[in-house]
Amino acid sequence: MSDLESFRAEIRAWIEANCPEEMRRPVQDEGDICWGGRNFVFKSEAQKQWMEVCAAKGYTVPDWPVAYGGAGMDPAQAKIWREEMARAGARPPLSSFGIWMLGPALLKFGTEEQKVHYLGQVARGEIRWCQGYSEPGSGSDLVSLQTFGEDKGDHWVVNGQKIWTSYADKADWIFCLVRTDKANTYQGISFLLFDMTTPGVTTKPIKLISGSSPFCETFFDNVEVPKSQIVGQLNRGWDVAKYLLGHEREMISGAGGGEQTSTIGKVLTRNGLDDPMLRAELAQFDIDALSFAAMGEKFLDEIKVGKAHPAQPNMMKYAGTELNKRRHELLMAAGGSTALEWDSAETRGGAPARSWLRTKANSIEGGTSEVMLNVVAKRILELPGA
Amino acid sequence: MALYYTEDQAMLADSVTGFMADEGGIKKQLRHWRDTNCKDGFGHGLWKQFAEMGLTGMLAAEADGGLAMGHVEAGIVLAEIGRNLTPSPFLTTAVMGVTALSEASDELRGRWLPGVIAGETVLAMAIDEGAKHRPDKIACRAERAGNGFRLTGAKGFVIHGTSADALIVAARTSGSDSDADGVTLFAVPKDAAGIGHTAVRLVDSAMASHVRFDGVELDGSSVIGEVDGGRAVLNKVLSAGRIGAAAEQTGVGSGAFAMTTTYLKTRKQFGKLIGEFQALQHRAAHLYSELEIAEAVVIKAQQLLDGGSERAELMVSVAKAKAARACNLAVREGVQMHGGVGMTDEYDIGLYMKRERALTEFMGDANYHAERVAQLSGY
Asked: Do B276 and A383 touch (CB under 8 A)?
């Protein structure tokens, strides 16, 4: 048996022995996702137990170094981990912006002290992070952001407003883009970390067309941030931000086997529909979903060994989110008038309609589809003047 | 297994890329044979060079003198064939033909494989009977006669039919036309009495044949595999042909895309390079995304097929459909973005459009494979 085969056997046996039955059922809604953090209320004992046994082995972040709370898996091992998790139908033990976004940025730009401190907290599910990027006047044109940090010697005093801050009302800490030099556009932004309980931080949820409020407006009124809480160099936060956006786009794309990659054609038989035109559309969709799943697998394989184009996450984000919107259009069509019900028990409180509406944000958040196409045209295709 | 080439595969890709660009280029091969009205539509000299490069026996077993490689490797060659629009009998002979013969007796393998591996023998596949690919229905009949069979019926879309030394024929030996069982594969030599060809030139300048079998006498040794049990062999041949055509299409799409992006960077209108216009940039970026995804699913399906996975059949159909759609978009956008010159015979972009159309039809178009995906997925 090769090393990788015995590794697979070991992982399979460990998941078999440690993953509670309840954690092997598909995620139904937001409440089934384990976000961790100071104020997180576990839905069940099984959810808590699954996060804790994984954290103890470094399996919440399997490819991070052991010193920072990971399991130190190499790319081939991490792939086996994902495959075995999928095979067992096991839910991710912990989901968080700390894992998907801040973690990769800290691994690249953080000091050793920051890595040990912050990454360990993320891996153990102790601190839940949110992202302070967009502002009311800075959406696609993010670099025009105005939130300002005034230099006060050993700390900055931050004033301004962020918007579309996902789960700001539930997060413990924020990673935030703050202007620290008004004279420079790109090289006048710093990447700061601070506690959401710092005096002067307030949040206000934004109600979406889906009826739910995953996003907030976040206000900073004379918020004091110690200078030790900067990632990377002063005024070079845009480099960190861009690097992190790559990981955010990768996450939103569903490259790791998110909802986008699963097929939906069976909804036809499940709903007892005799609709040849819809059947054809579903088959075309399933072809695209299975193809995108292969793309996600290839992308992750390549990115781990440095073979992927650095701008490839933009392509993945574009394709993955457009696919997900189409998926929910088709699910609404397959659901017919039942899928229109907004709060009935049969639809689990209007889940199909709410999910459908929520997906419309996929191609806006984290960079619009149009911005993604601009980036692909410029950086990958190297088209002129783009 | 990671979805990128191993070191050996990357080396193969390097050498095949150079070889095909040098020897298989559009001017040297496709335009030459087309403009000289070649009855084969391809060059036998190049086929011999394929053999010298070790490409003809890629899929054959080592015991048969082959290299025992897989569909990933064959796909590397086919993608370069696609990129250069190289006319050759590689897909029908070295991929589909060898896949069929690999299931045949020692005698049959000994009769045909050495010539294939030497680049001297060409094989053609006689499977389709109508204008659309419907291999579930096989009406061409081989009835028992003495120690052998008598073959009667007609086949169409037989690529390289008149150039082939042998035809691999799917015929019915029992049951009715749409039965899954009762199919047998035969290797029929070109000089067997009672074969009639009507050669036709296709839109992509490939030569195809409408073949008639008028009581062709075959002895038992020409049977590939089991009598009445040919469906399993046929399915392997179809999978090999489908994933091969999909790989070639990714090459066609990528070749057309490369021409088009180059054009966007050189053609000026309104005092600007046309690649500066966002309307074209977004369409080009979308096309890039579709081509990348098609390449990913093709290599995924190749690996599953090579690994004998039970998902291979589904994923081959997914790949064939996806490659067809992406490549079709590439050639349509290619001609449109080239503007007027894209309509001229002088520019190569139109040749890509023609090849795409023929490859899409070969072994089932995108709708055929979408139907299969639905069926195999249980809806």
From this structure: yes
Crossing angle of the two packed helices B349-361 and B230-264, in degrees rounded to 10: 160
What's the pLDDT tens digit per position in A60-77?
999 999 999 999 999 889
Contact A287 B2 (CB under 8 A): no
ipTM: 0.96
Among chain B residues, the shortest Cα distance to A255 is held by: B293
pLDDT for the residue A262: 84
Q: What's the CA angle centered on B27, arms B26 and B31, to 5 degrees? A: 85
Binary contact (B288, A381; C-beta < 8 A):
yes
Strands A129-132 and A173-179: parallel
Return mean pLDDT, chain B.
Answer: 97
Q: DSSP class of residue A24?
A: G
Reduced to 3 states (helix: H, G, I; strand: E, B; else coil), residue A202 is strand
Active site annotation includes A52: no
A107 is a domain residue: no
pLDDT over 80 (residue B221): yes
Range of the domain at B214: 125-228
pLDDT of residue A298: 94
Question: How much of chain B exceeds pLDDT 70, in percent?
Answer: 100
Please name the residue that has the structure tokens 């958040």: A365
- Report if residue B176 sits inside a domain: yes
Instruction: Tell me which chain A residues have a C-beta less than 8 angstroms from the C-beta of B373.
Output: 265, 283, 286-287, 290
Which portions of chain A are predicted below pLDDT 70?
1, 256-261, 386
Helix (H) or strand (E) holding A155, with range, is: strand A155-166
pLDDT > 80? residue B120: yes
Residues B262 and B371 in one domain: yes
Looking at the fold, whether B175 and B220 belong to one and the same domain comes out as yes
Q: Which residues of chain A are within 8 Å of residue B4 when distances are taken between CB atoms?
A: 298, 301-302, 305, 307
State the smallest CA–CA distance between residue B132 and chain A in angstroms.
18
Q: Give the N- to C-terminal CA distance of chain A in Å, as an integer.
A: 52
- Chain A contact probe: residue of B250, B261, B273, B282 with most A CBs at under 10 A: B282
Give the model's pLDDT for residue A42: 95
Which residue range forms the structural domain that includes residue A136?
129-236
